[in-house]
Amino acid sequence: MLGRLTQSNAGGLVLLTAVSWFVYQAVGEGFLSSFNLFTLSQLAAQTAVIGFAQLVVIAIGRLNLAVGAVGLSVVMFTGWLVETVGVSPGLAVLAGLVLGAAMGAFMGWVELRTGLHSFIVTLAIQSVYIGIVLIVSNGVSVTTLPSGITDFGSKWLFVPELSLLVVPAVAIAAALLYLFRRSSFGWKMLAVGANEPAAELSGVRVSRVVIGSFALSGLLAGVAGVMEMSRVAAALPSMGTDWLLPAFIVPILGGAFLTGGFVSISGAVMAAIFLESIAAGLVSLNVATYWQAFAEAIVLLVAVVADQARRRRRQRIKTGGVLRAEVRRAEHDERAYA
Questions:
Q1: Helices (DSSP H) in 29-182: which residue ranges?
Q2: Nearest residue to 141 (alpha-carbon basis) of 234, 241, 243, 239
Q3: Of 80, 52, 45, which is closest to residue 67 (Cα–Cα)?
Q4: What angle do CA 13, 246, 96 make, to 5 degrees?
Q5: What pTM was computed for the model?
Q6: What is the helix (H) or strand (E) element at residue 198, kind and residue range?
Q7: What are 21-78's pLDDT values in tens digits?
Q8: pLDDT in tens, 192-214
Q9: CA angle 118, 119, 124 (to 5 degrees)
């Protein structure tokens, strides 16, 4: 049973997380306290959604370096609607999420129109989005948010150790699980990521899949932004600047192929929990904050190396299957001629 558990990315991450919790509790101070677990659940829920925003474009073989910029734009726009315009919190959040989806769709459209790699497109548009936000807001934070927004990030679910922010993260994970396992659009996303020319020849409208995937990425980045705004009880112009590493660590460490065609929702969830457990454990050990960034970088490096190993193993299995089929065909022909 232990062998089967460690064969999957999610299973391996469960064991790693359990071991890290044991070590941090034994060596650190108050790692399993109610306050620390509540904070851990807050951050892990948000990090999971950040990772999902990247995962849906990795699925189609693309990258989105503007996840943080879109989240920032949604946060500042929502805060402006609430504080300056006087829009109700629910309507302001909805408008912000629509903006996030539109910003994501725009990036997909630009990539298709220019033919440039998504890395270049999203890197350039990231700077544009951040620049517009800073110019329009003058870099001023929105700190007078209504309780309807701030309470959601500070309340707990069932037990004091579990943040209410876990609810949207779990709901999104379930929705993505349905998307990739049961819906035709999810299958088309994976088909485009696995082999785009073949998918197009089979009738898949690649342009629609690309724009739809980027729109979904923008929507999820907006959700992550709203979650952070609710958690810190403010709309800050610095939000999203530290999302780049977790945005890639979560899907890749969770088992997604960086080249597209395969994703793991459960693996991404466990990767988010593991990543935030490392950060929380370092805090319990009174380690300086810059070591946390170093730890994240190491985890990302490990995730990329693991992705390379997975793809080589997949290629070996595929090649071995082809060779076995050729051998069986040769043996069959030999018997037929005999």
A1: 34-58, 67-80, 89-114, 118-137, 147-154, 166-182
A2: 234
A3: 52
A4: 125
A5: 0.88
A6: helix 196-201
A7: 988 888 877 888 899 999 999 999 999 999 999 999 999 999 999 999 999 999 999 9
A8: 999 999 999 999 999 999 999 99
A9: 95
